């Protein structure tokens, strides 16, 4: 194992081992990072600060510009990460790892003249994928997804992660394996709240069911009256639709979906929804057994 006392040595190790930076995925990079620095130990913001310091990166907690959880800079040759001091644990962990990955991009460009650095948005997306892959290791997380029956709330509590991060990570680890659609609805008004999609993700397999925006709501779309989300909000309990017919031919592309509101006091703070092909309905059975949802009549061409 390379003597990993700074970020440059780690990046040189990655280049030496894999030869081409273009072939390194976020999953591969996260595996190397986890094996070298975390050793399957429990992750915490403090631990990640120590890891960053060992990489030669100074980490500082404090106020950040509005709407920004964290950022990084290189000043006088020194690498720095700044994160929001009053953020939640999950947010701090994600931010530190995200900024480490963004700083890696500078080092990769320096040690490999032929490397084409990612553009701003691509770096941001790669950093998000890297952070998620470190915090939610693929095989372990995949197994927990099936064990919990795709229970977004239970997985969030298990890993101390937001529902949004769980929804997105499920699609990453199950891509090509199973059809899955997940979305998170959150209120946009205090009085008579309008629940809208704030995050969504999907994975597909050989069944080739199209993830159309008409059937599968995207970011910003409000819950329709009579939809599964609307029913879960009105009833204030988990709700299940055993059969959602997605085409005029009843036995093509049928879905099963479950929505589980997160309630504190009198307020519904969020409602995650998961939909799978009806033929794969058994994968959500562990969640059904745990939350005892109310079963709704069949839906036709809507969630």
Name the descriptors:
303 residues, alpha/beta, Arc Repressor Mutant, subunit A, Beta-Lactamase, 8-stranded mixed β-sheet, 10 helices, 11 strands, 39% helix, 22% strand, globular
Describe this structure as you would to a colleague.
This protein is of the alpha/beta class and 303 residues long. It folds into two domains: 7-135, Arc Repressor Mutant, subunit A; 149-300, Beta-Lactamase (2-Layer Sandwich). The chain has ten helices and eleven strands. The protein has helices spanning 7-18, 26-38, 45-54, 89-111, 120-135, 138-147, 152-159, 163-174, 228-235, 285-291; strands spanning 57-62, 70-75, 78-84, 180-187, 195-203, 239-245, 255-259, 262-264, 267-277, 294-296, 299-300. The strands form two sheets. Strands 4, 5, 6, 7, 8, 9, 10 and 11 form an eight-stranded mixed beta sheet that branches. Strands 1-3-2 form a three-stranded mixed beta sheet. β4 and β5 (195-203) form a beta hairpin. α1 crosses α4. The chain is globular and about 65 Å long.
């Amino acid at each position: 194992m390379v003597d990993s006392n700074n970020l440059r040595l780690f990046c040189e190790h990655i280049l030496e081992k894999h030869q081409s930076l273009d072939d390194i995925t976020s999953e591969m990079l996260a595996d190397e990072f986890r094996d070298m620095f975390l050793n399957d130990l429990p992750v915490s913001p403090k631990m990640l600060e120590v890891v960053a310091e060992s990489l030669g990166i100074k980490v500082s907690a404090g106020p950040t510009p509005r709407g920004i959880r964290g950022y990084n800079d290189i000043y006088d040759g020194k690498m720095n990460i700044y994160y929001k001091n009053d953020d939640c644990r999950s947010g701090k962990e994600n931010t530190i790892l995200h900024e480490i990955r963004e700083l890696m991009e500078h080092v990769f460009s320096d040690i490999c003249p032929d490397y084409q650095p990612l553009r701003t948005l691509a770096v941001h997306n790669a950093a998000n994928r890297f952070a998620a892959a470190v915090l939610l290791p693929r095989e372990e997380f995949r197994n927990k997804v099936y064990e919990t029956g795709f229970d977004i709330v239970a997985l969030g509590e298990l890993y101390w992660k937001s529902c949004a991060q769980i929804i997105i990570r499920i699609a990453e680890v199950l891509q090509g394996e199973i059809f899955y659609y997940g979305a998170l609805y959150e209120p946009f008004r205090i009085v008579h709240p309008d629940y809208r999609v704030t995050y969504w993700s999907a994975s597909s397999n050989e069944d080739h069911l199209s993830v159309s925006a008409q059937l599968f709501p995207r970011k910003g779309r409000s819950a329709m009256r009579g939809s599964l989300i609307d029913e879960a909000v009105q009833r204030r309990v988990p709700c299940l639709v055993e059969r959602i017919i997605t085409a005029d031919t009843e036995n093509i592309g049928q879905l099963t979906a479950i929505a589980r509101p997160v309630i504190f006091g009198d307020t519904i703070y969020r409602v995650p929804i998961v939909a799978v092909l009806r033929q794969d309905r058994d994968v959500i059975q562990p969640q059904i057994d745990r939350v005892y949802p109310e079963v709704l009549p069949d839906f036709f061409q809507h969630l």
